[in-house]
């Protein structure tokens, strides 16, 4: 029986795909722009309609504590799923329920919203990666920043998710990025619990010190607001710097692993070709 070696396509057989690649790249840019606009619109809507949010909080305030806490938790969950920032709502929770109950309800609401967001992101992960993400650099074929971040999500999921959770970035980014980049759910849930509770306690503490609910939407500068802005900005710079350094480090490890795999596979491929040549020669003698 004759064994035929599979023909390897030559350079002439490969048609250039530059127009298609350029079109796909433009689609990625457009999709990324849509996401940024959606996040910006959500933040702007939270600012514009903050008085309506306060009226809703007043309605929750007149309910019994158990019912009010449940309604507030559901409101935080829906608020997060609508891509809206929850900080203002968490301050209102601290004012309505006090520090402990406000922090607890905020944490539960954010966890529910984050888990649902994670499920949505994991469900449409393949579509997002195909339409919006470019896993390889088109010029050098090296791993991109996204590939390095994905590598960090897989090898150090808790620390990476926790650093992202502490960063002062939209919560939609904190929830959907780990889902799309294949972070395991358990480390994501742990990071969400700890990081979400930390911010919930901070905002609830601020809300519990307010004398009236109208102070939540005041435009004036108070020492508490200035302190939160300074601490938030400092933590953002520090955490994003840590994430950037860690991601660059795992990118270097990722490149080294790929080079090692290439150096190992080359001799194995040559050995396979020699075996195929011997089989072809032996089949000709039969």
From TrEMBL:
Pfam families: VTT_dom. Its main location: membrane. The chain crosses the membrane at residues 29-49, 70-89, 95-121, 185-206, 226-245. Residues 84-208 form the VTT domain. Keywords: Cell membrane, Membrane, Transmembrane, Transmembrane helix. It is found in: Cell membrane. This is VTT domain-containing protein. PANTHER family: GOLGI APPARATUS MEMBRANE PROTEIN TVP38-RELATED. It is a multi-pass membrane protein. It comes from Chrysophaeum taylorii. One of its GO terms (cellular component) is plasma membrane.
């Amino acid at each position: 029986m004759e064994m035929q070696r599979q023909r390897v396509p030559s350079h002439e057989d490969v048609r250039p795909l530059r127009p298609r690649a350029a079109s796909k790249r433009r689609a990625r840019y457009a999709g990324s722009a849509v996401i940024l606009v959606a996040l910006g619109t959500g933040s702007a809507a939270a600012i514009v309609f903050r008085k309506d949010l306060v009226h809703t909080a007043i309605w929750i305030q007149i309910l019994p504590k158990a019912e009010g806490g449940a309604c507030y938790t559901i409101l935080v969950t829906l608020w997060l799923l609508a891509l809206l920032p929850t900080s203002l709502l968490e301050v209102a929770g601290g004012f309505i329920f006090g520090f402990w109950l406000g922090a607890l309800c905020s944490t539960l609401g954010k966890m529910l919203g984050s888990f649902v967001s994670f499920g949505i992101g994991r469900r449409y992960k393949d579509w997002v990666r195909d339409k919006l993400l470019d896993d390889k650099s088109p010029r050098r074929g090296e791993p991109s920043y996204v590939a390095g971040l994905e590598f960090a999500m897989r090898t150090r999921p808790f620390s990476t998710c926790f650093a992202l959770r502490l960063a002062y970035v939209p919560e939609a980014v904190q929830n959907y990025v780990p889902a799309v980049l294949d972070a395991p759910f358990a480390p994501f849930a742990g990071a969400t619990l700890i990081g979400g509770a930390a911010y919930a306690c901070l905002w609830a503490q601020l809300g519990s010190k307010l004398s009236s609910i109208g102070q939540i939407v005041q435009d004036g500068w108070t020492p508490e607001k200035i302190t939160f802005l300074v601490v938030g900005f400092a933590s953002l710079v520090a955490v994003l710097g840590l994430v950037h350094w860690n991601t660059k480090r795992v990118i270097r490890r990722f490149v080294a692993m790929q080079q090692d795999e290439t150096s190992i596979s080359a001799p194995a491929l040559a050995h396979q070709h020699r075996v195929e040549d011997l089989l072809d020669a032996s089949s000709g003698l039969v």
